Structures are given as C-alpha cells and as structure tokens.
Target: SCO family protein
Amino acid sequence: MQKLLVSVVAIVALLAGVVIFNSLPRPEPQALVYEPPRELDPFMLEAHNGAQLTNADLTGQWTFLFTGYTSCPDICPTTMADFKKALPQLASVTNRPVKVWLISVDPRRDTQQKLADYTTYFGTEFMGVRAEHKNLYPFVNGLGLMYSIPGEEEVDYLVNHSSAIVLVNPDANRHAIFKASHTPGTLPTVDMEQMVQDFQLITQQYQ
Model:
C-alpha cells in the first residue's frame, strides 16, 4: 500500500511538472517569422559561377538572402564579414546546409566575374546572384526588400537598398526576415548574435 501511494504521488508530481513546464512562456524569435511561410514566385537568376538559379536551388538548405553590391562602401562588406564569422554558429544548430546569397542590385557594374571574385573571398557558402533589372526587381520586391535604380547617365553612384536579411527554409519558402537596427552613429546592420539565437529557435520549430 505504501509503495502504491509513493507511485501515485510520483505520478501526480510528474504530471504537475509537465503542466507547469507547458505553461511557462517559451522564448520567441525577435525576427518577423511568417506563419505560414510564404511561397516565392518563380524566378530565374544568374549565379556568380554562371549557373542559372531557380526556386529549386533553394530547396534542401537554409538560405540567408540580402541585397548589396560589390562597390558598396560600408553595409555590404560589413554584413559579409559578419556572416563569415557567424556561419559556424548558424551551421551548428541544423543538419541542413546553410548558404548565403548576396543579391547584387547593381547589375550594370557587377559582372559575373566581379561577383565571383567578391563572394568567393568569404567562402564556399556564399553565392553571388545577379540579373537584369526586369527580372531582378520583381524578385527583390517579392522578398519584401527594395533598392533604387540609378539613372543611365550616372557613372560613379551609390545604390540605396534594404539592409534586412531574408531567411528561406528548405522548402524554398520565405520563412523569416531579420530587420536591421538603426542606431544613431552606426551602420544599419542586422544584429548577428540575435540572428543566431533566432535561427536556433526557428530551426527547432521547423517541421
């Protein structure tokens, strides 16, 4: 009888612990997570190695996409360097490959070779992506990002573009967007440490 009582008490304590655990607030990503993830419109872009990229090239991996260009003086090289540093941490929380796509918003100057020289410097996980504006703009807009198109007469110019980073899941759907922090006196870049934490939560919840 005493053993039965002990067993009953143990079971009640276990159930109470489960109820309490399930009622505790769980950490949520600070990024904007799309519920459900959003499909991308069909696209065809050019990789820095000359390959044609379509939606199928986003399947089976986690892909971080952001806009930039090789002549960018500040945000783009900073983001690339931050990604290179963060990639081991990002890769450690998933058994899927983790890739980074730099989407050039300066197709006039960013040739395939120029993109290859720029992106391969940071590692094999980086892909330089380009297209002419007629294909590029709808793709970038579909990601929820933007950029400006300089006038044909301009030669030495800067391109305004989003500094946010979009996460595409292994089903090739837009899963989340990481907004840049805007602190006076600093570059508007994404907090990589927070992004790593968010990515871990996202991968744990991904089905």
Residues 54 and 176 are 20 Å apart (CA to CA). The chain has five helices and eight strands.
